[in-house]
C-alpha cells in the first residue's frame, strides 16, 4: 500500500473507531472536527477498500458487524500502543502531562477521592484532570475515560481491574420504622419493606452471617428503590424501610441514632473497591500513576 494511501486509510480507521466508540456518526464527527457526511464517507471508503461490511446500520442504531468488531478490537490495541508511545516520549522530555479522565460513584468520590485531588495535582502540576460521577463501565470506552472507580462485585467484561480495598455494608432502618416492624430474626426481613439499590441484580437477596447462629439467606420485598446511595439513605432515614448501605456512608447516622443496625449480630459480605480501566497492552503512564496513587492512599 503506498505511503499516501496508508495515511488516508489510517484517517478512515480513526473515524471508524470513533463511530463505534460513540455509537453515532454525528457524535464521532463532532469529536473529530469533521462533518457527518465526511465521517460516513470515511467508513464507506474503508469498507470498500477492505471488501467487507464493518457497520450494521439501521434507523435506530449503529453497531459493528462481527468482522467490524474484530477489526475494531485489533486497531484499538494499535491506537493505544501509539498513544502510549507518544505519552512515554512526552514524559521523558516534559514530565507527566495531558488530561486524565476519571469517574467514581458520587458518594464515594466526594468522601474519599476528591480530598486527594489537590495532593495529586501538586505532585503532577502539568497533568489536568476531568472528574465525572456515576459513569457506567460501557462509558469507559464510549466517553473515553481513563479509569472508573467502582464499588461492589464487578460484572464479567474484557476490561482490566485492580482492587483498592474492601468496605463493610450494613442493614439499617430508622427507629420509627423498627418500632412498627419487629425484626428479631433474618426471616422477618422477607416480609419487611425494603429500599432497594436498582444498580444491583438482586438488591434484596442477601446472605447474612452470624458467629452464633450461622448463615441465613433472605429475599426482601422491594417497596422503594433508587440507583443512588444518598437517596436510599434519605429514604431509610425517613422511615420508609430497611436498606443495605456502606458502613462509611451511615456511620454518623448510626452514631447519632438517626439510623440503627438491623440484626446487629449478623454481618454481610465485605464489598470490593476496584479501579477499572481499558484492557490494553500499553496502559498509559498517567493511568498507572493515578492507580498507584489511589493504592498508596486508599489501599488496604
From TrEMBL:
<keyword id="KW-0804">Transcription</keyword>
<comment type="similarity">
    <text>Belongs to the LysR transcriptional regulatory family.</text>
</comment>
<dbReference type="GO" id="GO:0003700">
    <property type="term" value="F:DNA-binding transcription factor activity"/>
</dbReference>
<dbReference type="GO" id="GO:0043565">
    <property type="term" value="F:sequence-specific DNA binding"/>
</dbReference>
<keyword id="KW-0238">DNA-binding</keyword>
<protein>
    <submittedName>
        <fullName>DNA-binding transcriptional regulator, LysR family</fullName>
    </submittedName>
</protein>
<dbReference type="Pfam" id="PF03466">
    <property type="entry name" value="LysR_substrate"/>
</dbReference>
<keyword id="KW-0805">Transcription regulation</keyword>
<feature type="domain" description="HTH lysR-type">
    <location>
        <begin position="8"/>
        <end position="65"/>
    </location>
</feature>
<dbReference type="InterPro" id="IPR036388">
    <property type="entry name" value="WH-like_DNA-bd_sf"/>
</dbReference>
<dbReference type="InterPro" id="IPR036390">
    <property type="entry name" value="WH_DNA-bd_sf"/>
</dbReference>
<dbReference type="InterPro" id="IPR000847">
    <property type="entry name" value="LysR_HTH_N"/>
</dbReference>
<dbReference type="Pfam" id="PF00126">
    <property type="entry name" value="HTH_1"/>
</dbReference>
<dbReference type="InterPro" id="IPR005119">
    <property type="entry name" value="LysR_subst-bd"/>
</dbReference>
<dbReference type="InterPro" id="IPR058163">
    <property type="entry name" value="LysR-type_TF_proteobact-type"/>
</dbReference>
<dbReference type="GO" id="GO:0006351">
    <property type="term" value="P:DNA-templated transcription"/>
</dbReference>
